[in-house]
Amino acid sequence: MLRVYFMLKGQYLKTAMEYKLNFWMMFVAGIVVRTLMMGVAFVLFQFMPTIAGFTEGEVYLIMALMFISEGICNIFFDGIWHLPALVHNGQFDMMLTRPVSPLYQLVSYEIGLQGVGVLVMGIVSLTLSAHYAGFLNFLNILLLIGFIITGALLRMSTYLVGVCTAFYSEHGGTQTMAYTMYSIGEYAKYPLIIYPGWMRGLLFSIIPFGFIGYVPVLILRNQNALLLAVALVCVTAVYLVSARWFFYRGIRNYESVGM
After folding, report:
1. Which helix (H) or strand (E) segment is 24 a member of?
2. Where do the structural domains in the chain lie, given as residue ranges?
3. What pLDDT shows up at residue 173?
4. CA-based R_g, the chain, Å
5. pLDDT single digits (tens) 23-76
6. Which whole-number Å values give the CA distances from 240 to 2, 157, 205, 237, in the listed order?
């Protein structure tokens, strides 16, 4: 199955790379936009030593983990964002008739080249910020790899739940819920302690982006590390199962060609 997945991604990559200028524009844009995001934190740290008790390196590390999860989702799971259009124009019918899981076909569909620049920026930022924060040792490197995996799975699961609303939309094609969840999740680029309780609750439950960057940094700081690590794994597993359930439950409501 993995062989088929990478073959499909390879074909989409060949198609996308026919327009090399477009690729380089998205690559540079991904780096520039994330650099500007980190620039906001840089300016803040010129006037204060910490943000809610988090050092400059720790805040950058939260951002880096967020960037990496976004880049991975863009490259490997970008097909999820195409579900509303596939439902609206009836192309989803083809996925249902093939002898392969429709969910597997969906995540194999398309490739988001904009994620390459985001991922590169995230990896560079992760390395520098982890070193700057004093977290760069063998054990923490293993933990960071685990955090990258759980972060990408959490983001992917959240996107999938959001786009599955297309199955229940009269006109299909809408990505409103998914974009709303993405936009709210962007607030998790900073330590969640700075937000009011209802916002923290939202980013720890319905839109669990707080588990992508904030919780991993708390674990690296050894703040209730074991409890938070167990919570991170459990939340990731629950969201993966829930997203899959939402997808297949939505298929039952699918009436073909946006009808």
Report:
1. helix 20-44
2. 2-251
3. 53
4. 19
5. 788 788 888 888 888 888 888 888 888 888 899 999 999 999 999 999 999 988
6. 19, 6, 13, 5
Nearest Cα to 228, choosing from 206, 213, 244? 213
Which tokens sit at 152? 């990408």
31 SS3 class: helix
The residue behind tokens 């980013």 is 203
Question: What is the reported pTM?
Answer: 0.90
Neighbours of 18 (CB within 10 A): 8
Buried b (16+ CB within 10 A) or exposed e, 102-138: bbbbbbbbbbbbbbbbbbbbbeebbeebbeebebeee
Structure tokens at 44: 């803040």
Q: Give the pLDDT confidence score for residue 169 in this predicted structure.
A: 74
* Dihedral of alpha carbons 166, 168, 172, 177, sign: negative
For the chain, the straight-line distance linking the first and the last C-alpha, in angstroms and rounded, comes to 32
Residue 174 has pLDDT above 50, yes or no: yes
